[in-house]
């Protein structure tokens, strides 16, 4: 595809949700042969290993995640990403506080999929920036105040194994939907 798009997933500790999203995204883009790169970061200090229960949910999708160490979100991470995806509204707010002009390319995963499904997938020749501008239309920063089950993926820290599995399934499903939306449709033949 030749785009070299960079996707950054953000959560709090970077040991559950965002590494799971990174792994599922990497697997999906490799399956489709897309020229995307993906990474993740958290809003807390880094250098912690991925939670073992989270790793157990993604090992088949991306075995290299076993070596994952949490990373503290930086302004440079944000500036170098074409698309920033928070696991909850609070993460979008953190991103925009660090780099205010990242607003129009920063969404929660669920928000981006919901809005993207409303406008439809990227069309042949449509840039990611143009598609994101269409997704962003009518969106207000005040829409992301507070918490919302519509936008937030539950934080499984301290939860049961079944909660982590539920969260992993939700992330996997949303990431697959996202990849379908952001991958330009094949030109008509």
Structural class label: alpha/beta
- Look at the structure and name the CATH superfamily: Response regulator
Order the strands across the largest sheet as they lie in space: 2-1-3-4
Biggest sheet character: 4 strands, parallel
DSSP helix fraction: 40-55%
| Helix-strand string | EHEHHEHEHHH
Q: Would you identify the CATH architecture?
A: 3-Layer(aba) Sandwich
> Which stretches are poorly predicted, pLDDT < 50 over at least 5 residues?
none
Put simply, the count of helices is 7
The geometry reads as: globular
What's the overall average pLDDT, rounded?
A: 92
* Strand-residue proportion: 5-15%
What's the CATH class label? Alpha Beta
Total number of domains: 1
Radius of gyration: 16 Å
CATH fold call: Rossmann fold
Give the total of beta strands. 4
Distance between the termini: 18 Å
Describe this protein's structure:
- The protein is α/β, with parallel strands linked by helices and 189 residues long.
- It has a single domain (5-182), classed as Response regulator (Rossmann fold, 3-Layer(aba) Sandwich), CATH 3.40.50.2300.
- 42% of the residues lie in helices and 11% in strands.
- It contains seven helices and four strands.
- It has helices at residues 17-32, 52-58, 75-79, 89-98, 109-119, 128-136, 161-182; strands at 5-11, 36-42, 83-86, 106-108.
- The chain has a four-stranded parallel sheet, with helices on both faces.
- Strand 1 (5-11), helix 1 (17-32) and strand 2 form a beta-alpha-beta unit.
- Helix 1 (17-32) runs parallel beside helix 2 and helix 2 crosses helix 7.
- The protein is globular, with a radius of gyration of 16 Å.
């Amino acid at each position: 595809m030749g785009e070299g798009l960079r996707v950054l997933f953000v959560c709090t500790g970077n040991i559950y949700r965002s590494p799971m999203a990174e792994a599922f995204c990497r697997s999906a883009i490799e399956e489709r042969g897309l020229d995307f790169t993906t990474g993740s970061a958290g809003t807390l200090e880094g250098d912690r290993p991925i939670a073992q229960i989270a790793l157990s949910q993604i090992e088949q999708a991306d075995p290299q995640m076993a070596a994952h160490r949490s990373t503290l979100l930086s302004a440079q991470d944000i500036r170098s990403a074409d698309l920033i995806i928070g696991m909850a509204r609070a993460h979008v707010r953190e991103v925009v506080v660090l780099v205010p002009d990242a607003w129009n390319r920063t969404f929660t995963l669920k928000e981006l999929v919901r809005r993207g499904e409303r406008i439809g997938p990227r069309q042949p020749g449509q840039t990611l920036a143009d598609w994101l501008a269409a997704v962003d239309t009518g969106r207000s920063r005040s829409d992301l105040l507070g918490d919302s089950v519509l936008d937030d993926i539950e934080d499984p820290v301290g939860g049961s194994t079944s909660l982590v599995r539920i969260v992993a399934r939700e992330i996997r499903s949303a990431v697959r939907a996202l990849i379908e939306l952001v991958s330009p449709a094949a030109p008509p033949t």
